[in-house]
Design brief:
Layout (H helix, E strand, L loop, with lengths): L10 E9 L5 E14 L4 E15 L14 H7 L5 E5 L8 E3 L1 H5 L7 H21 L5 H6 L8
Parallel strand pairs: 1-5
Antiparallel strand pairs: 1-2, 2-3, 3-4
Length: 152
């Protein structure tokens, strides 16, 4: 059974690797600050608090020069700073997590799903508060109703 090696308030380096369309690899290491443990799922909730290091490898596995750390994909990597994600306990071993490129480009919501859930929850809470403000006796009945049609 997987075990957490870190507790909330502690940090560990978390490495990601993405294969680029041309076959080269982009690698990035972040400091992951543990916010919470999710024992039932064997996962951490972490914030990617600092981009620590990066590199690109060519098709042969050779490290490319530092000036290759520029461009659209690296802008996306740097944009991951501050994101909150859930990650398996096993990710704390320092080995790279090989990710689909769609997770970096945003086509897959891996790096945004935690924020997406928070936005949805805030919307639900706001709706509940509005319905309570109307003096509704059975809020769940109103929530289950389809939206009113605005046909002209």
């Amino acid at each position: 059974m997987p075990e957490a090696h870190y507790e909330p308030g502690q940090s560990f380096p978390l490495q990601f690797a993405w294969r680029m369309p041309d076959g080269e690899y982009l690698r990035a290491v972040f400091r992951a600050d543990v916010l919470e443990l999710v024992p039932g799922a064997d996962k951490y909730i972490v914030r990617l608090s600092e981009f620590l290091a990066g590199r690109e490898d060519d098709n042969e596995g050779n490290v490319k020069p530092l000036e290759s750390l520029e461009g659209e994909y690296w802008d996306m990597v740097r944009g991951l700073d501050g994101r909150t994600i859930t990650i398996a306990y096993e990710a704390d071993d320092g080995h790279p997590l090989y990710m689909r490129l769609a997770t970096l480009t945003g086509e897959h919501n891996f790096f945004t799903r935690h924020e997406d859930v928070e936005v949805i929850a805030r919307g639900i809470m706001a709706r509940m508060e509005r319905l309570q403000g109307k003096g509704s006796q059975n809020i769940s009945d109103e929530i289950d109703q389809p939206p009113a049609s605005h046909d002209d």
